[in-house]
Design goal:
single chain, alpha/beta, seven-stranded parallel sheet, elongated
């Protein structure tokens, strides 16, 4: 038999008749290594085509492509629910599963978290453990009024579900001027807290947007006038309070000088940076964060993943 005939026969015996590579090698008087090579060649040349009769197959394919296109270490893609109101719950559940595995396998000594609906859903679905050595740290300031999606509340709930220590960055997200921010950040206590936040082994954040769906917009942070200014400056959304343009660069606007949060360059040094978000209103924010290399792990939904892969770069200005 020539090489192609051997390829076809080995592939038939393996994929159709279900023989092991050892049995094929014996039947065809070949080594197991040669059988393995023939099977690989059959796939490469299209003689054998493998398909999966499962909706999960698309998610796995999207995960692989996201990692390749955006340089991610890992991605988790879940089916977009028919009800848009369930999107944060679905993504939060997937993020919880990822964090459960991360904590079990990597055993990080510290975890930095942000705020928002998706993180609230994440902590709701995490498996409670007793990890008193883990330190859960806030990556940014919080709202000045109570809310279950507030940074302070999210940090507390993460610490509770992990049985871990809780460390707040007890300041508002934004102050009234760059000068006020400089004064606050110059305090030894705040310098220490931000340095500790920069040294966490893993972080979990969502991205913000500038649509009516945005939590910051709904809570009046920033005002409607400032939102228009941010849009005019090219902003598409934010991560830990820093507003980015479509390519992931911080925009030239005073809000970025008033934010109480970890600096983006310091944030980029965190070894495991999980971003969890999805939905039409988050598309541009997600692309900006991924383009800027701000994530090592992405958790999102199928529709968002498809859009990101179809539009990996923003259109020319």
């Amino acid at each position: 038999m020539d090489n192609r005939d051997m390829m076809v026969k080995a592939a038939w015996l393996y994929h159709v008749e279900g023989l092991t590579q050892a049995h094929i090698a014996e039947r065809m008087n070949l080594t197991r290594r040669r059988v393995n090579e023939l099977l690989a060649m059959a796939l490469d040349q299209g003689i054998v085509r493998i398909s999966f009769a499962s909706p999960l197959a698309e998610s796995v394919e999207l995960e692989s492509k996201l990692c390749s296109v955006f340089g991610l270490e890992e991605a988790a893609v879940v089916m977009t629910p028919a009800d848009p109101g369930q999107l944060q719950t679905v993504i939060g559940r997937a993020t919880a599963a990822f964090l459960d595995r991360l904590i079990q396998v990597r055993k990080p000594a510290s975890l930095g978290v942000g705020w928002g609906t998706t993180l609230r859903e994440t902590v709701e679905h995490m498996t409670p453990v007793n990890a008193p050595d883990i330190k859960v740290r806030s990556m940014m300031g919080g709202l000045t009024r109570g809310s279950e999606i507030n940074t302070f509340e999210i940090v507390r709930r993460f610490a509770k579900v992990l049985g871990a220590e809780c460390h707040y960055l007890a300041a508002p997200i934004y102050v009234d001027s760059a000068g006020s921010r400089d004064i606050i950040m110059a305090q030894p206590a705040f310098r220490d807290l931000l340095q500790e936040a920069a040294n966490v082994e893993a972080s979990c954040l969502s991205v913000g947007d500038l649509t009516k769906e945005s939590l910051q917009v709904r809570y009046g942070l920033p005002s409607k006038q400032v939102i228009e200014e941010l849009r005019a400056a090219g902003a598409v959304g934010d991560i830990i309070g820093h507003y980015l343009d479509g390519r992931g660069n911080p925009v030239d606007h005073g809000m970025n000088e008033r934010v109480i949060a970890l600096d983006l360059e310091e944030y980029r040094q965190i070894p495991c940076r999980i971003i969890t978000s999805g939905g039409v209103h988050k598309y541009n924010s997600l692309r900006a964060a991924l383009s800027a290399g701000l994530a090592t792990v992405l958790v999102t939904d199928t529709e968002s993943a498809r859009w990101l892969l179809e539009n990996p770069a923003p259109p020319p200005a």
